[in-house]
Amino acid sequence: MRGTVLAAIPVNMLLGLASILVAYRSGHGALGAAWFAASTCVNLLRIVLCRIPCLGLALTADMTPSLAATAARSVDRHLRVCTLAAFLSGLVWACQPLLSAGYTSPETLFYLTITCGVTAGAVTHGIAYARIPIAFIALPLLSVSVCLTYAGDFDRNCLAACVVLYLVALTHTAFRSQAVFREASRLKNEAHALARSRAEAHASASALVDEMRWRATHDDLTGLLNRAGFLQAAESRLHSGTLSLLLLDLDGFKFVNDVYGHKAGDRVLVEVARRLRDALPENGLAARLGGDEFAVLYDPATSGLAHDVMAANFITAVAHPFDGFDAGRLGVSIGVHAGPEPSLTEMLSCADEALYAAKAGGRNRFRVFDAGLREGLQMRRDLERDLSQALVENAPRVWFQPIYAADGHTLVGLEALIRWEHPRLGWIAPPDLIAAAAMAGLTESLLRYILEQVCAMLEILRSRGLDGVRVAMNVSPREMAQVPVDEIVIERLGLLDLPPTMLEIEITEETALDIGAVQGKLQALSRAGIRITLDDFGIGYSSLSSLRQLKADRIKIDRSFVTGLGTCDDKRGLVLAVLGLGRLLGLDVVAEGVESVDDLHILQAMGCPFLQGYYLGRPMPVEAMEDTLLVTRIAAA
Ligand code: C2E
Ligand code: CA
Ligand code: CA
């Protein structure tokens, strides 16, 4: 409304100005000036009214209802005052007949035209609020009509009637325009509100997207990058220089978690992350890849820090005591990869290889990936690549090593040991073969493959009536945890109709580390009549509890305590202790690694019930074993 009034007033003033000019020319200069002065005063009043603040115009959506009602009332009041001012302005224009002797002077045409123009203009402009233009036009047009009627002739009477009609038409138009304006305003307000709410929705959606993006690339606990975020960020920097990659793995973290609880473990991780960040060169990347494993990528050239200095810095940073923990418990091992590599994946596996070597060397060490490690890595990769084809071609063979009773002559069992001569790399150490199978995802295939050959040996033994000879098959902790060993073995024996009592499974203490995953399987094997032997006994750290948890029927003393028994009192003490333990708990004891006649005699003197070793018999292929069976005294079933 204010806008339309303010737009109409200059036109109003211009027409007023033209009126006094005409009045002056027709000899009514003084009257014209007085009229114009009155008109100007009212117009000024109207301008002021349109400019003064109005509480209602500050109306916002979040006003309290009572404040909103007050605001609405103030708008009503303001409109009424403005309508009154328009009426006053109309009153001034209604006085125009004074300048033209009641529309009878020769200037009548001019004044009539001006009045029609100003009233039409008021309605065309005043679309927002109809009452104001109507208040303005009513008096001038009525005064025209009255004066014309009063002047009396037919033409003028007709014109007077037309002016009344004109007034009615303008009034109608004013209300129509107001309705259209209100509808348009409503639509505009709605559109604004919609745009505002869409903008708000967009803002909150973008905030959510940002948050999700952050979570997808960062570790919640430490705020460092997570694996995905690290790979992404590292990939984009790979070609910007020769970068060094450090993989860090905490030493002793499991101890903190086990002894002090997971909350304390989390605090350690957060603190380690903080120390890494502090020691990190500018533009370096630090990430928590998972568990207690961290990664750092940086450019030694721009930071001026060589990778060995950097690794030593991290080791020192982590070595500082942590609040509330025994100093020196925690440490970090670091694998470093420096120099160009074709891809990030390659850098990671090289650094991982170095980390593995660092860990094997002890705590708080770093190892830089070098030619030696590259050779080892390459060999493992060749193994992984070639193993599945080798299994198809039946290249790996299971050999058997005899196990004897205390006399050293009576055969009581065999241990199945895998052998593979790689066409290029030569004989592969069984632990390397097992590890390669794990890396190649062939753990279960290899287990089934070995079981097949073990079962073939069981069939040979049974066919010769040698049911008393048991065959021991090694099952690694990983195989035990990841493969349904119990189901596979029991099903296979059942299918071939082989007695489970002829089979023995050798496991190591490490199997107990994931006791939840293996206990059920061991129980099932045990229930089926298959014996469980705890291998490499004596080199672990929790032997007694493992014995109970793993349901072992037998223990096999590790060969490091057996070989050279005669030359070392410590070994003798340990073997005696294990033999005593076996008697006490009712467990069979096997000594492996009998390499000399001395070893044999000492073990016999100690009363060791079962013996295995190169002195008594080396591992041999099936055919050689079959020959041996022909010439050996065999234990009765
Ligand atoms: P293990 O279970 O302790 O097997 C005994 C190892 O000692 C065998 O080495 C055997 O050849 C060797 N050995 C036997 N008597 C003597 C001796 O008098 N002196 C010396 N110095 N060594 C002797 P091998 O065959 O190289 O196997 C090494 C390890 O690889 C095994 O240790 C076992 O942990 C693993 N392994 C071997 N075959 C298999 C298999 O089929 N499956 C799984 N999961 N692991 C296997
Ligand atoms: Ca074994
Ligand atoms: Ca062993």
Automatic annotation (TrEMBL):
Residues 379-624 form the EAL domain. GO terms for molecular function: cyclic-guanylate-specific phosphodiesterase activity. InterPro entries: Cyclic-di-GMP_PDE-like, EAL_dom, EAL_sf, GGDEF_dom, Nucleotide_cyclase, Rev_trsase/Diguanyl_cyclase. SUPFAM superfamilies: EAL domain-like, Nucleotide cyclase. Keywords: Membrane, Transmembrane, Transmembrane helix. The chain crosses the membrane at residues 6-24, 36-58, 78-96, 134-151, 158-175. SMART domains: EAL, GGDEF. Residues 205-369 form the GGDEF domain. Pfam families: EAL, GGDEF. CDD domains: EAL (cd01948), GGDEF (cd01949). This is Diguanylate cyclase/phosphodiesterase. It comes from Methylobacterium oryzae CBMB20. The lineage of its organism: Bacteria, Pseudomonadati, Pseudomonadota, Alphaproteobacteria, Hyphomicrobiales.
